[in-house]
Amino acid sequence: MRLVSTFSLADGDELSKPIYNDKGQILIHEGVALTKRMINRLTDIGVTYVYIEDEATNDIESKSPISDRVRVEAVNTIKDTFDTMSGSDDVANSFIFDKTGEKMVDIVRHILSEVQDHNEVISLLSDVFTYDDYIFTHSLNVTIYALALGTELGLPSKKLEELGYGAMLHDVGKVFVPRDVLLKPGKLTDEEFKQIQEHSEAGFNMLRKMPTVPLTAAHCAYQHHERLDGSGYPRGLTEKDIHLYAKILGIADVFDAVTSNRVYRNAMLPHEGLEILYAGAGTLFDQKMIQAFRKSVAAYPNGLTVVLSDGRKGIVARQNKHVSDRPVVRILEEDGLELSEYYEIDMSQELNVIVTECDTTLFSKNA
Known about the structure:
Helix content: 40-55%
Pfam families: HD_5
Number of strands: 9
Keywords: Kinase, Transferase
GO molecular function: kinase activity
Number of helices: 12
Largest sheet: 5 strands, antiparallel
Distance between the termini: 16 Å
Strand content: 5-15%
CATH superfamily of the largest domain: Hypothetical protein af1432
Radius of gyration: 21 Å
CATH architecture of the largest domain: Orthogonal Bundle
Order of helices and strands: EEEHEHHHHHHHHHHHEEEEE
Organism: Pontibacillus marinus BH030004 = DSM 16465
InterPro entries: HD/PDEase_dom, HD_GYP_dom, HDIG_dom
């Protein structure tokens, strides 16, 4: 399979992974030959990348860190929880949330178990789901990334569960932000940006009043936009005053935000998202955490076309755990010529070459 941008798809390209809606129902099946109408629809609903069939790479796989069942259940639980919180006049005393909260704890445990059983670095590009509201899937993705980072940092199970719970609820304050502001495609006004920023404090004030919600979860909502140098919000906290979980969530939140499709911009590829984090290492984000996160996620996902520093072109075939920027690459083109027989190089062993370019249009059939 090869990872290509939806903008480079052409009539006849065949999906190698199905596309689901938020209820886990298949919208387009694996093996279906795409039509122009289907491609336009994928673009309209915000699908940025898909995997297509390809003879030279049909044995390459991209595995999701969590099962489809857990993903669908998690998104629906997050949605139900957010709806409960936004729809009650007295949420703090609502017994409805108690039941939803118990389910959320159970979901966090399932996600943690599957993430820890996943034998590869994390790549969420393998999950082609469409959602009516990005907040719910963003909350899940941040949870996955945060738990992967927390595991790499060696946090004990109890703290990982607390971290996961806080991650799922970190953006709950956005239920109070007008949807036309959250989904605005153009530049925000100063007043609109202030409304967005208020979600941190709104989430904190809601969660801290709930006796069944750990105070750490409330602080995850409050502090996930704080930065080590004091440039964050809402309180401009510096490193020593920011909770451990909030430091982790700040990294996971930014990475998912820039690598996900939004109404105001297209998604970056993972290596580009990592560069954003590297630029803030030591000033905005904890440097050791950035190093641990780098080991946890795939900089170059399986199926991605890459260009190497010596001019060779190929497809990422497999990952090297803990060295996510040095994958195994299947070379398909050399000296400007397509090879009749491919071969693979392990970049963790061949240190004299680096990835200089990623291209989601190269080798796309009929492109």
